[in-house]
Amino acid sequence: MPHINDIPEKQLVPGIIGQYIHGDKTSFGWVTLKAGSQFTTHHHPHEQVTCILEGELEMVIGGVTKILTPGMVEVIPGGVPHSAVVKKDSIVIDVFSPVREEYKS
Asked: How would you classify residue 63: left for phi > 0, otherwise alpha for psi between -120 and 50, otherwise beta?
């Protein structure tokens, strides 16, 4: 069983680094985000579950703005447009189904 520190880092966008492990049907990500970084509006076919461990994100999900703080969990259905602005340095867990094949490399 790998330790999170042993999983290679993948820069998703400037200031946002993910470390991913994959099962047959899901991808699990430990994501470190720097304040001021952002994901512009995007969508993907994968269902995404995001859990905030540390920090604060402002997310727009399907046109609805939400502030996510530690302990909050958000389910983003596949195909729904969403974006995020990192308000404070953050750590989140992201789980995707099906597997994010592009995150394997």
From this structure: left
